[in-house]
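Cross-posting from the modeling subforum.

Setting up a comparison between two proteins and wanted a second pair of eyes on the formatting. Protein 1 (sequence, then structure tokens):
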Amino acid sequence: MLPRKVLCTLCLGCTLLLLTGCWDRVEINQRGFVVGVAIDKPEGENGKNLYKGTYQMIVPGGLKQSSGSTTGQGNSMNPHAGQAYFNISTTENSMPAVAARIAGRTSRSPYFEHLRIIIISSDVAKNKANLPNVLDFFLRNSEMRRGVQILIADGKASDILGIYPNNESTPIDYISSIAKNNQKTNFMLPESRIGDVHEFLIKNESFVLQTIKKEDGGVTLNGSALFDGTTKQLLGFLTGEETQGLNFITQRVKGGIIESNVDDQVVGFKVERSNRKFYVQQTSPGHMKFTIKIIAEGTLDKSITNIDPSEGKTVEALEKSLQDKLASTANKTIKKLQHSYKKDALGLGPYLFQDHYKMWKPIAENWDNGENLFAQAEVDVQTKVIIRRIGNIFESTKE
């Protein structure tokens, strides 16, 4: 047998062979950190290329400088000098080809691990199967994270990356901050993350995604983009008010305001909690009657001076006015989805699948396709608003 010391030396020698360095290591100063991607349809190419990709890449030196005051303006020799970011665009027939072409035009190879937002233009999204084709590259990329946000641009996506980033270092920081404000407004959807969108694409259910539009030098995220669950193509947009109704129906309200008119004046109600329940009755093999009950609780955020909200009857009248407004908003959303688009983004189909499968199975193929039983369904909305607190009152007068 070999001496013990010799055996230990051989074992240690073999172990050293396994302690090799990272074979794919790339130094940080050689990476091009991509934080935003905009995807458009190329203009004036007569179908030569399918996609125009615009990458927003971080300039580490400029990011450090901009943290002190404002983003630098560059100079004639180097327009990116002092800036925290720059945008670079190219056109190709696929997203991997776009990434490869941009890698050949920048000194730092595009790196997607810090990617935060992907913006897809309405022109790209309205074509059949374009959304899954575009996202396939990002879903398969090992550098990607499942929390990347997906936005549908009402207009050109690349224009969004060119806005001035008020109070932020980059446009992506600015957009990301706005997208998280759904606790203050219910006129926009919660963030649409790529992991959630992947699930939507696998299912055959119609869905909505967060939308973005350039406006007054900045952006607005009010409203939502509606997609066909079968073809995965963009059908159109819902307004902010219609999105508000959809949020209450789908239980995605985190806060925000409901406004109604009392005595020709506006009363504001701050939503703190919201709940919704579905009920269904099958009146015939192809006809469903749904009841949607919505409950909202919160605080009187704005009152009017000629009423005293501390009185019980006054509170009841305010609650009735707010209930009517909420029901009206929800019914507008239902009407738009049933009659204009004939697509179920309300969640009624998934509700039947989960809770009433025997009822759902015979009609599944004809729910929002074929005979389109969704458009023929009867939907009744019942609302209840509870004012828990009336807030601070500066002045009230009684007649």
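Protein 2 (same layout):
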Amino acid sequence: MSRPEIGGERDIQEIAKAFQESRVLLSAFELGVFTALGLEGLGSEEAAERLGADPRGLDRLLNALAALGLVRKDGGLFRNTEAAETFLNAKSPRYLSGLAHTANVYKSWATLTDAVRRGGRVTERPSADSADTRSFIEAMHRRAKDDADALAALLDLSGVRRVLDLGGGSGAYSMAFCRAEPGLTAVVLDLPHVTPLTRRYVAAEGLSERIGTQDGDYHDADFGQGYDLVFLSAIAHINSAAENKRLVARAARALNPGGRVAVQDFIMDDDRTTPLHGALFALNMLVNTERGDTYTESEVRDWMEDAGLTDVLRLDGRDKASLVVGRLAER
């Protein structure tokens, strides 16, 4: 759903300045402000000493956080609100660690003007072993695990025995598939600097015997054969339409008869203006990739039908992403 048309100057100014509140939150997150404050209450000078920041600079940041309702200020002391303590303190089990990736994305969005002129990313790709990669995988893991069990139920994995999880990152979806279907095993195919992180997440859930990894780039890796499901989550938006068409065709060739290819992504309506989150995410791909985009249901359906898949259907879960699933006919 798109928003109502903008009403006037005030609305335009609010959109133009929206980045300011975002930057206050992300800078506080990067500095570790919420973890330092906790609920005990600190003055700005003591907090600055703990964080290695300038006292005046941090004081002004803390005042802005108080104005936003993220911290409380009482008698010159600052402490977290309940929401900040729950979601922004690194000691909390519900800590939004994925905001580290959001902070990285913020930087790339500053290049949007140049990316529109060029038609793709103008920044350098992060190095393979960088902290950015770990932040990205952690962000994707947190997002996926919140929805993975519901998605597994939506797919109906009855009788599925082997799954290939392309670009599966932390393996969050493969883990959910294993929980949903006791006889299921999975292979997560991802880049060589990602799979060690995958194995770490999988081991933490006690599923190392059922989930393996394969190093490779999904554009040219050998998928093998004998899979009942090839799953592509948050993959299509990284690639061009032509790359996705080839990828779906190769995924289809890896299936057993009756097996399925499932593409999960932000699926756009045909006019590409709705939903709003998909239209914005298309720009996120513009500033962060060479050829990435968001795609319509009809485009994904065409890739599947061209690959010989039938019974193509769309499944909408509780998250903003949707599933498009196609089946290889029984022989």
